[in-house]
Amino acid sequence: MTKACEMQLNSINLIKALFSEVNPIPVKKALNLMGYNFGEPRLPLIPMSEAKAEKLKDEMKKFNLV
Q1: Cα angle 19, 20, 23; round to 5
Q2: Mean pLDDT of 38-62
């Protein structure tokens, strides 16, 4: 239980980055950053903002995802 709690708390910023915009925008961006070609969201959704995308990338680096 202690380890699970620690893991959850360590991933809070990554979780926040993955939910910083409407789903599935951040998830598609994360998968694209990981090398999977999921493309851009379809209208009426728009691509993730550069600032939020950079934050997502920084958080993903902490978990060796990119």
Answers
A1: 50
A2: 94
Domain extent, residue 6, equals 2-62
Domain count, the chain: 1
Polymer length in residues for the chain:
66
Q: Shortest CA distance to 40 belongs to which of 57, 24, 51?
A: 24
Burial class (CB in 10 A: 0-12, 13-18, 19+), 59: buried
CA distance 64 to 48: 21
Model pTM? 0.85
Which has the closest alpha carbon to 28: 44, 42, 13? 42
What is the rounded CA–CA span in Å between residue 17 and residue 64? 15
